[in-house]
Design goal:
heterodimer; A: mainly alpha; Globin-like; about 65% helix; about 0% strand; elongated; B: Porin; twelve-stranded antiparallel beta barrel; two-stranded antiparallel ribbon; globular
Chain lengths: ~140, ~280
Amino acid sequence: MTHNKKLFQTLAFLLCAMPAFAEDTLYQQLGGQQAIERITTNLLDRILVNPKIDFLFEDTDREDLHIKIVNQVCMETGGPCVYEGLDMVEAHSGMDIKYAEMDIFVQDFILAMEDADIPFRLQNKVLAIFAPMREDITHQ
Amino acid sequence: MKLKTVCIYVVALWSTAVWSGSRQLGTGAVMQVEGSSGSGIVSWATISGYGENTETDFTGAYTYLDTDDYRFNMVGASIGIKNRVELSFAKQELDLVTLGPALDLPGATLKQDVIGAKVRLGGNLVYTKMPQISFGIQHKKNQSFLIPSVAGARDDSSIDYYLSATKLFLGKPWGFNGFATLTLRSTEANELGLLGFGGDLGNRHINAEASFGLFLTKSWAVGFDFRQKRSNLSFASEDHWRDVFVAWVPNRHFSLVAAYADLGTVATLQDQKGLYLSVNGSF
């Protein structure tokens, strides 16, 4: 009986303590701020010179875009940042981005994560967060 | 002269290859046995190739399946138009390795041509919550109707109609990219139509098909297919088909599929199992 009680107490303790062992945020799994900075640098190195989409960034200030992307990825993956830029519809309004152009951006984003040694399974979790934004980003 | 034509063709092909469609790797799936975009034996809701709504591209495929008693091959071509419409053509040939000599018809083959059309009704495989949903038809014309007619088939041509839903799940399960397809097919075909259409047991049925799988990396996928089949011919009762597959998609221009297929009993011969190989090219 005492034995059972003790077992019950142990189980109760473990269950209550569970949140403390909760999985790291995606932000932490990726490698935190440093990794996101690196991914963003890799991404800008690609998209700003990719002849298929570089014209979309003609009027863009690299420093400004860098900060916005870092903050957005950080915030969306559960990190301690606040994205203060325009929402996705406003940010892309008047650009009339085609699906095909967004595809090229996504491909460069995947390569940027690969270059930053982000494992495939984490890459996919990041993509899953941003994929639903396609309709807001394109054809605005 | 002929060589020159081929050379021009190859160069033209290469130059267009540079401008191939821009959809994500693997999203064109592969050509299934009747020429539609899908997996080995199942038609999917995907549109062949990699074209987006502003792009159009072409896919060609060769498929080979050997069960010892039968050798199947398919040559097919398709065009994916603006990620909305797919048109396809496939030539199927089934070599009756065992049955031919047994019927005193050594070298006998069953042949069929399939013209397919598919339209994406809505949804996007990758980007929308809703699965990609497509409706397709396959017009089938048996080109060797003597044997099927003797076996009791009613027609040498018919149309399959199918409604398909396909979805890619980014990061699910376990961080991999999973994919699933469910297809309902209305068909009169006996063994795809290679044994003609309809028979003494019935004509049209609505059959279910399904595919499930995982992208383990950007270029490697594994999965399995199931295709329900029902019998119209008491002479040649049919079994459901299934296969497990591995697909390698190194780039947007080339893919290779290897599968192990279990076709059950086919035209009286039991336990038809064997290796399935398919090579796809897109530009």
